[in-house]
Amino acid sequence: MSTLRLPASMESFGYFRSFVLQELERVNGLEELVPQVDLVMEEVLVNAINYAYPKEEGKIEVECLAEGPGRFRVTVRDWGVPFNPLDQAAPDLSMDISSRQVGGLGIYLVKQMAGRLTYEYRDGGNVLTLWFEKKA
Amino acid sequence: MELNSYKQDKFFIVKASGRMDAISAPEFEKSCLEWIQQGESTLVVDLEGLQYMSSAGLRSILVVGKKLKSVGGSLSFSSLTPNVAHVFSISGFGSMFQVYDSLEKALGNS
């Protein structure tokens, strides 16, 4: 298990991304998960960077774990505003371009692309856990 | 992300390559809005060289699409790579915009 904790700012984004992709590369046979892990991590991290700490400076922690064959787990923690992404309503994908709302798609992509995700507010922080699984 | 653009007949072609993410998408949006401001209204965005797009890219595309719609223009896409096509598909963008297999087809049909 490896952990990286950095300030919640866009300057940290590239470091988090490299960290997670390197951890994923260290696990043999999970190359096919790279595109979805890459995308989901951007959505989750940018969301936390933009919204977790509206007033003060804060940290984000990312933890990676190869969890048995074919499965990779990432946990993202922050200690900012409580936010449960699972509560967010799905955007209406049938609307035409004039009525379609700008935004709201990130969490939707996360839900579609992560194999499974759970959220809890624990010890004063948001804990989002994501599982990525190789197709059988 | 790298952007290359040129005019061909009525079309204004934008070739985007690399990654359209939270860092680079604002640049795409800003450039497109400037071209629209300069009078371009038939934009074809060729994504043959684009390997990655996140919701930040979708968001910028939607802003540009709304702007073009408001001035009576059009926005279409060509040559999506598998990862980008997947993101277009699950977000509904594949049915909201015209998407062509190749740039040639986009220029023939728009």
Q: In percent, how much strand structure appears in the residues of chain A? A: 25-35%
Q: DSSP helix count of chain B?
A: 5
The number of distinct structural domains of chain A comes to 1
**Rounded mean pLDDT score of chain A:** 94
Sheet with most strands: strand arrangement of chain B: 1-2-3-4-5
Examine the coordinates and then state which fold CATH places here, giving the name of the CATH topology of chain A: Heat Shock Protein 90
Number of helices of chain A: 3
Low-confidence stretches of chain B: none
Write up what this structure looks like.
The complex is a heterodimer of chains A (136) and B (110). Chain A is an alpha+beta fold and 136 residues long. Chain A has a single domain, classed as Histidine kinase-like ATPase, C-terminal domain (Heat Shock Protein 90). In chain A, 32% of the residues lie in helices and 28% in strands. Chain A contains three helices and five strands; from the N terminus they run βααββαββ. In chain A, β4 and β5 form a beta hairpin. In chain A, α1 packs antiparallel against α2 and α2 runs antiparallel to α3. Chain A starts with a strand and ends with a strand. The model of chain A has no long low-confidence stretch (mean pLDDT 94). In chain B, α1 packs parallel to α2. Chain B has one domain: Transcription Regulator spoIIAA. Chain B is globular, with a radius of gyration of 12 Å. Chain B is built from five helices and five strands, in the order ββαβαβααβα. In chain B, 45% of the residues lie in helices and 34% in strands. At the A-B interface, α2 and α3 of A face α2 and α3 of B.
